[in-house]
Ig-like domain-containing protein (Biomphalaria glabrata), 240 residues
Amino acid sequence: MYAKTNDTSDPFGIKCGLSGRSSANLVFGDAYNLYVTPVTQIPGQAPVLRWFSANVVAEVSHSARLECVFSGYDPLQPLPTITWSLEDGTVISTNQKYNVSSNGRCLIIYKLSEQDEITYSCQARNTIGESEIHPVFLNVTSKPIFYENKAPKDVTVSQNKHVTIPCEARSASRETPPSPAVWYVNARQIGPHTNRNKIIVKANSLTIKSVQKPDDIMCVVCIVSNSVGQTMGEACVNVI
């Protein structure tokens, strides 16, 4: 909070309030009286970091919010200038990807990708001096991500041919690998012990041997999970 007043006659009360994303209610804390004492001169102070958003975790394609809060006093510049930078030192400005708001205190990053998992930095300046550069790491997570051309897709195959449906996925960088795929054929779960003469189930693929019409016209679903969530792929097999 920044208060600008020269009224020394009476104290005035202040409160701070908090609200959450899941509730529109504003919850107030205790009330305090602010007394204004006249002084001839207040010494200036360079900005000092007081709080930052640590352990920020956000999911791919979502947004992330980073914050740095600084103290300091400058009679010529009541609020310090806060700068956010990328790892290579590039200063971040507001555009379609980034939004620097709240007098520079907040950095919002839109449409996250794995490449956004880096260490950002914040620094504040006023006419008295500047703060140290402070690192703020963003951890970008994701549900399993299918490798290119490794997601299930519809297929048309001739009779007596074998058909293999892939379901190969990975987690985001530095995340725990996903579990083996769980398979469903025509809404019925199948496993490694399913009739091996007809269907071979592996960790990341399902093979149907010597397909026949109409028995092997089917729809297949695979589900891959990791610590963030599940990813589902589906495909239908048409036999001609």
Observations:
- The chain has a mean pLDDT of 89.
- The longest strand covers residues 64-73.
- Residues 45-141 form a domain with the Immunoglobulin-like fold (CATH 2.60.40.10).
- The radius of gyration is 29 Å.
